[in-house]
Amino acid sequence: MLKTLFNNKIKIVSFVVASTLLIPSNIGINFFGINLEDLPSIIVFIYLILMKVKSKIFNKTDTLFIVFLISFSVYVSIFSDKIDFFNQTNLRFIFYFTFSYLLIDFCKRESLIIVNIFEGLSIVMIINFLIIVFQLQLPGTIDGWVSSNNGSLNPFTSGRLGGIQGGGPNVIGIFCAVYALVCINKIINGNNSIRITDFKISDLLMLFISLLNLFFTYSRGSYLAFGIGFLILFLYSDIFSRKQKILLLTIGSMLSVFTVFIFSGIFLKQSNRTFLRSLAIENVEFFKGSGGGNYIKDVYKEYLITIDPQLLLEKYNFQYSEEDYLLMSNKDEVLVDAPAEGYLKLNFDYKDGFLPRSIVSFYYSLDGSEWFMIGDEHTNGTIIDLQINDSYFEVGGWGDGQSPGESYLDGFVESVNISSNGNLYNYEITETNRDSEYFVFLPKSSDLYDNRNDGKLIFSEKGLKLKRPRSYWVALPNYTNLSGSDFEVTVKLSLNNIPRGNETIFSQSSILRTSKRINNQSWKWSIVDGRMYFFWIEDVDFGYANFLGGQSLRSGKIIANDGKFDTKITNFSLSQYDEITTAHNGFLTMSVEYGLVVVIFILLIIIYSIFNNLNQKESLYLSLFAALFTQNLTNDLIYSPDVSLYFWLIPAYFLLNLRGNQSV
Question: What is the pLDDT of residue 190?
């Protein structure tokens, strides 16, 4: 009777804690960083402290935990760029650690069923299921149903689930994965068979809802986390024999590969994680950290320092010193207006090895031999089938009436090389090669430009001077079909300035007939404010609606440096806010803020406690922690207030299990 009463208490506690996931973030009191969504966990925290004091039980493990807590508090406050004992991020970590320890200690002290802590997530699953059904959009940019703004009512294409808690699809995704694992564990351990009639309808229903929610987050990290957690549960289960497990693992692996190929746009699309991770690693020191909450300030200093100081203070609530501005002064505005010359190259990889995706990348060179990538590779995760077009290639602008704003490259073009299917097509844009290797046409036509009637063309050792398409356009004969093939386009240019607007470098956009074929526009390689773009047409009615490249930090920007092409970190846009606040490795973030030694110490404790709990009885907790840990490698979950309350529960459980107590 008493145990039932206590278990009901822990279920109530689980629902109170879970209610933090149903309260939008950053609303309410805002007292020392505390808002309305923090109150449920604070109430539970106070309750746990009172229960601990009331129990009058204090043992060696409690002493060790207090020593760890004090050591952590002192170290992270002193070994940072600025001594700060009341740092909000530090205090939150101390709260997470203490909350998890007290909750597990309470459950074990009263012999309670610890898995009931996760039961409160059921209401979170139901509420988020309703968000999907009714496509409820909340005020935040990543809250509720995050619309894709395509006007579709089809949930498979109209958006994704972002949850209510303010952390977006990745945060609600891991909760869906965790609760689905809890449901699967109840189904597996509640029956010795796999007959559908032996399962509770409620468990099956909640499993279905959780997996459906998980799917609509479109969070690849959450998918992977669930897969790894499920694999651990499956391997430890008694329902299947060893041979059956091998067979099912084989079938599951084949289905996983098949799923990746079918939904390549979800699983293979480009990610900023590798690039952002490299920036973070450069800021990691062994002993000393930047201080709690200073990750963004330090790692992205070269970007954020380009923002107006007042905007920076309003958006991120910090400022850089005058010394920082002096050291990191950005000169790209001067460099943009300067002349530059060299080679630019577009590389189109139709199929990335065996993976069903196309990759576009951009390069520059000073001599045509040594190439430097501008930013990183770009892919939308799918194969890009370009429209077949056998009309002229166009250099420096859309010459047959398609040019937006009559934009063009201001400078000279000397040569163009196209490489495809083992063939190399070289076009030298010289005066002697005119009307043989290339053509100069009047606007909107294939009528040859006449020097006597239309004005003299300007040539130099740097090639032909480009002019607005209303004067003439440069056309290259098309000897190959680039659709469905790998290809490279290299252009040697001498520009008077780096383009500020949307200007075309090279395109296959001409619709003029050179054969019996009726052509549609296909693709273009453009430069927009110094950043490279690849636009292409899938549906003629929608035009150039598809593109790769853009404003991402990983895109890079071409600049002028001493008269030559170069690339450099330049101005940062506030529209990139979500990019630099997501996709972090949680422990890497912690290493930047607190030093590598702290993270190594915490990980060693976790690893030691896990290896002392590797048994079938702990399979659920191993599964849950594996899922949480996996997603923390791609998203800083330990910095999310909601996830941290659950993340540190499992290490606390394993540590308290080292006493030799029976698992419950």
Answer: 61
φ, ψ of residue 488 to 5 degrees: the values are -130, 140
pLDDT tens string 211-236: 999 999 998 889 999 999 999 998 88
Q: How far apart are CA 49 and CA 606, in angstroms?
A: 24
CA dist list (Å): 156 to 147, 218, 439, 506: 11, 10, 48, 35
Is there a contact between 180 and 210 (Cβ–Cβ < 8 Å)?
yes
Q: Whole-angstrom Cα distance, residue 20 to residue 25? A: 9
Q: Are 254 and 660 in contact (CB under 8 A)?
A: no
Where are the extended beta strands (E) located within 562-636? 564-567
CA dihedral sign, ordered 195, 236, 638, 304: negative
Within 13 Å, how many C-alpha atoms sit on residue 112's CB side? 25
| SS3 at position 19 | helix
Please state whether beta strands 487-495 and 393-395 pair in parallel, antiparallel, or not at all (unpaired). unpaired
Q: Give the Cα separation of 268 and 218 in Å (integer).
A: 12
Domain ranges of the chain: 122-219, 336-570
Amino acid 1: pLDDT: 41
Closest CA to 374 of 254, 257, 528, 224: 528
Separation CA 15–CA 41 (nearest Å): 10
- Return all residues near 568 (Cβ < 8 A) that are at least 6 apart: 332, 335, 557, 559, 561
- How high is the mean pLDDT of the chain? 83
* End-to-end CA separation in angstroms for the chain: 17
Reported as a pLDDT band with limits 50, 70 and 90, residue 636 is: confident
Cβ proximity of 638 and 590 under 8 Å: yes
| Least confidently predicted of 280-284, 331-335, 641-645 | 331-335
Q: What are phi and psi of 102, to 5 degrees?
A: -65, -40
User: What is the rounded average pLDDT of the residues 421-433?
Assistant: 92
Half-sphere exposure for 38 (CA within 13 Å, toward CB) = 16
Q: How far apart are CA 367 and CA 342, in angstroms?
A: 7
Quote the percentage of the chain above a pLDDT of 70.
87
**327 contact partners, CB below 8 Å, separation of at least 6:** none
What was the pLDDT predicted at 454? 64
Model-level pTM?
0.78
Exposed / middle / buried, residue 496 (Cβ in 10 Å: 0-12, 13-18, 19+): middle
Structure tokens that stand for 650 in this block: 């499992």
pLDDT at 2: 42
Buried b (16+ CB within 10 A) or exposed e, 308-343: eeeebeeebeeebeeeeeeeeebebeebbeeebbbb
**Residue written as token pair 């204090």:** 58
- Tokens standing for residue 93: 């970590």
Tens of pLDDT, residues 397-411: 655 544 445 556 888
pLDDT of 333 > 90? The answer is no
By CB atoms closer than 10 A (0-12, 13-18, 19+), residue 446 is: middle
Alpha carbons 26 and 33: distance in angstroms, whole number: 9
Q: For residue 608, is pLDDT > 70? A: yes
Task: Evaluate whether 588 touches 280 at the Cβ level (below 8 Å).
Answer: yes
